[in-house]
Each structure stands twice: as C-alpha cells, then as structure tokens.
Amino acid sequence: MAGFRRNALWLALAASPLAHADPVSLEAIQVTAEREAASDIVIDRQNLDRYQADDLNDVFAGRPDVNVGGSNSIAQKVYVRGFEDPLLNVSVDGATQAGALFHHSGRLSVEPELLKQVEVNAGAGRATDGAGALGGSIRFVTRDPEDLLRPGENAGALVKLGSFSNTDGYKASGTAFGRLSDNWSTLVSVSQSDHEPFKDGNGERVAGSDARQQLGFAKLVGQLPADQTLKLSHEVRTDKGERPQRPQWIVSGFNRLYDLDGRRDTTTLNYGYAPSGNALVDLEATVYHTESDIEQNVEDRWGRYFGFSKNTGGDLRNTSRFGEHSLTYGVDYREDNVNAGYEDDKKAEQQTGEVLGIYLQGDVWLTSRLLFSAGARYDDYRLKDNNDQRFSEDEVSPNANLAWEVVDGLTLKAGYAEAFRGPTTQDSFKLEGSENDPDLKGEKARNTEVGFDYRYDRFRLSAEVYRSEIKDAIADPLLPFRESIYKNIGDLESDGYLISTGYQWQALSAGLSFHSNDAEVDGQPLTVYEHNLLGNTMGDTWIADLAYRWDRNLEFGWQGRFVKGIDGLETSVGTIDKPGYGVHDVFVHWLPTGSEDLRLTLTVKNVGDKQYLDHASNADYQHIEDYEGIVGMPEPGRDIRLGLAMRF
C-alpha cells in the first residue's frame, strides 16, 4: 500500500495540468519518474502528432499557461506565466540554448518531428533546473532509435509527407533507424518544408510570413559494458525567407522586406552509468556545443549584418538512492560568446560570459504519504562585455517543496524556490551602440505556489496558485529615451492561478483548463513592445478538448482555445486594447491497413477562419500618433493539413 501511495504522489507531481484521465498517456509519463516528478507540464508524442505540429506554436497549443507569439516562424517567442523564454533555462537533450541574436526575432528553434516529449517547469524550481532558471525551464527531449524500433526489429524507416492549404506549403521528412549490433543503434533524420506567405482570417496574404526550413539530425546510441550508456547527436537546422526588417511586426513603410536567415548547429554527448545493484550510483554527464547565427541583408542601407551566439558547456550529476529517498548532486558549467558585425568584419563586436554552478537536490519520504523535497544551487557568473567592462556575481538559491496525500487520491502541494542570474551576454544585434550600466547587478527570482491534485478512477482535478518575482530585472528600456543601456529596470511580478480537469469515459476523453495571469514590472503591465525579452500580458485563457477513439484504427477530436479580451491596458505611450478570440482545431487519425505502417491524418487549424492577433504577439499601437505600423502579424486563417506517414 505504501508503494502504491508513493507512485500516486509521483504521478500527481508529474502529470500535465491538462492531461486527460487517460491511463495510457499517464503510463508513458511515469517511465522516468525521477525527472518527471519535477515537471509541471509534459507534452508527449501523441499530442504533437494529433495536430501535425509544425512550429513552437503548435507544440504548446494545448497549454493555457504557455503562450507563443509571432506568426512568422523566425519571430516566435515563448512565454511561460507571462515571462519570456530568455528568463528560462531552455535545453535540447541537456544542451542549454542561451543568448539572444535579435530582439525582434525569436531565439528558439526546434523541429517537432524529432521530439519525444517536452518538459516545462514553470517558475523558479528545483536546483537541477539549471543556471539562470528565473522563470523556470523548458527541456526538449529528442527521440532515440529504440523509441522507433519495434520489439525484435533491427531496422526501419519512417517517411512523412504533409500539405498545408493556407500557405500552399509542404513538409517532407525521412527517418532511418536501426541496430548496428546488439549494443549500438542509430537514427538519421532529414526534413524540408516550404511555405508561402499565409492568409489571415480575412483571406489576405500576410507579406513576410514565408519560410523555407531544412533539418538534418543524427544520433548514435551505445549500451556499453558495466551498465553504461552513450548517446552522441548532431543537429543542423536552417530557416530562410523574406521577412520584415523587424520580423516581430507587420510590413510597413519603415519595416520593409529583406532576406533574413537563421541557423542552429548543436552537438551533444550524453553519458550514463547506473550499475545494477548499486543504488548509490546513477551518473549522468552531458557535454554540448551549440552555434546559432542570423543574417539580415538590408541591401538598400547598410547591407548584410550578422549575429552569432556560441554556447559550450556540460553537466555532471549523480543520484544516490537510500531506500525510497534520493539525493541528486552535481556541477554544471557554460561559456557563452556573442558576436555581431557587418560583412567586412562579421565578429567585430563581442561579449563573453561564463557561469559555474554547484547543486544539490533531495527527495525524502517523511511518511508513506508525505514527500519533502529540498535543495540549493550556487552559481558564479562572470562577464566581459563589448566595452571591456567586467562583471562578477555569485549567489546561493534554495528551494523546498511538500507533497502530502491527505486521503487516497487527494494530494496537497506547496513550494518555495529561488533562482539567480548574474549579468550575461546580451542581444547580438544590439552590441553595436549599446553598453552595460557599470553598476549592473544580478537578478534574483522568488517563486511561491500552492495547489492540489485530485484523482478518482478516471476523473482528475487540479489547481494551483502562484506568485513569481524577479528583483532587479535587466533590460535596455526602449522608452522613453532609447538609451541603449542595459540596467536594472525594476522588479518583475507574475501572479496567477491554473485550474484543470480531465475525464475519460470508455473511448471518450475530455479536458478543460483555465489560466489567469497578471505580469507587471514595478506595477506597469508587461508588453512585448516596451519590455522585449522580459514578458507580455495575456488575457484569461480557457482550453477545452475532446477526443474519441471509434476503434483501434480511427480517432478524431477537437480542441478550442478561448482568450478573454483586455481593454484599456495602460502603457507608457498610451492605452491599448487586446481583443479576445476563440479558435477551434480538429483532427482525424486513420490507419487504413489496421497498423501503424500507414497512417493518414487530417487536421484543420482555425476551423472558423478567425481573424485575430494573438495576445503573445506585439499588440496593436497603430491608433496612437507616430506609432503606425507598430503591430504584430495576425495569426493564420483556416489551414487544412493532410499528413501521410509510412512505416517500413
């Protein structure tokens, strides 16, 4: 009975707030319980396949507390509880994606087809979340060959073809996987997509929204003697197109179209050692190197301009288990280099930073119903900026959490955590002409949350209330004087609550969730125009979904996203409105041959052809004098996606 209760508590901590009461999905989440227990949100492969995820917006579409702004693929920014992704620790298979290239574009790029799952920890949390996780962390986990190989199978291939009606676009991918020997396996994947500018809900083509993307990915996995595991992967991703000079906004007289191309290369080595019969050793080591660059050709003015970001680092940790208890401890290190320049000297501007972290996190079962987690990390930041100023700051960040199963099925949760980030490298496109305040100091986050999780049979209900604060947030204020000086501008605050429920009855599953959030800096609402790279204000958001499995070969479903409008939002340049909207998506999965060897998927995004501006995008300032053209791109109108997947 005690073991059952412990599993229930782990599951309560692991489960996504919108997860249906679907035992199949929950079992998949429980596979890596030690890590999953720390994740507020887990998005699995099933969710990505249902709506033929093509970008970050599709990946997080089912989350009311995660928003993606920017209709243009290269401009997409992710917001968790109102905080923008530069305030989070983001990694791909443990390789941290740090730094920003261009404040008017996004900094994250990912191919949904490669993903096994996505884990999101909202708010400052566990010491193992990594350095600088002021607003939480996002972990993208890619597939292994074993995730695709069937029992007894030595080789296979997966070919996918997709068409997109709105953009007259296509996407094609091919993945080959197999065992090289009893202990070694490999996976190689390539994909290409081509999209013309999309049509908005009014049927108008949106200039600057086209994209041509290519991906190459290879992974080698080895099961070494003495319970060792080795994984080596390399990914190359490119994104090319004709975009507005500031891709975050619409095309206008001052925001003309130019070629804007991006690329990311990531090499990651993961090593694991978990000897059977030795509970004190479960060693994980990660070494990575990521290079990202962006190139813009403002041909009628200054010509080509380049931005570069390079992250090299590693993480070494061990987990020791003492009966039902566990202790994870380790060290991580990262060096960041950011450069920018014109064609004659592409790396004329430079900043270099580094961070060394030491951490400890323990999970202790005080009783069979009460789990206590506590830890701390020490981070030491150093920065040499483009004006040869040097900064050095360090801090200790503690955390503590309780999960108490009061009665069978009902778990109460409460937690407090801190996180620290010292001065770091800045946006590469702002290196020229910008500087750091000589008195610049580090940022300190504090996150408090309480909630509960209730499960009975196939019914689930959960809720949480949170308050996050980031003291001495760093930014270079756009207004009022365009100083181009990075300084501590004040305190960020994010307050809100999340409620979700799910139920499964035979072949029918249903989910409903609601998120409300207020994000401010010194009492002023966060807006992406004034507080770029910090956060944005979103309206109250509902997400509802239904899925029905007719039989083992046919499944269909619906998802709706409903956002309440915000009227009279006060900014430093005037009052703006954010109109509300409701958007519906549907899908149908069919296995014509009765097996996964052939799968047809029909997805319709924005069924009602709704014309709207996502709250996570740049709001509309055009009614304010001298701010004509300051508005984000509208979202795509109806998009009919037809996908064919063939398994060999």
TrEMBL record:
Taxonomic superkingdom: Bacteria
Cleaved signal peptide residues: 1-21
GO CC terms of this entry: cell outer membrane
GO BP annotations, alphabetical order: siderophore transmembrane transport
Subcellular location: Cell outer membrane
Coiled-coil portions: none
InterPro entries: Beta-barrel_TonB, Beta-barrel_TonB_sf, Plug_dom, Plug_dom_sf, TonB-dep_rcpt-like
Keywords attached to this entry: Cell outer membrane, Membrane, Signal, TonB box, Transmembrane, Transmembrane beta strand, Transport
Location (main, coarse): membrane
Keyword Metal-binding: no
Domain TonB-dependent receptor-like beta-barrel: 255-607
Family label: Belongs to the TonB-dependent receptor family.
Protein name: Putative IRON-REGULATED OUTER MEMBRANE PROTEIN
Source organism (scientific name): Marinobacter excellens LAMA 842
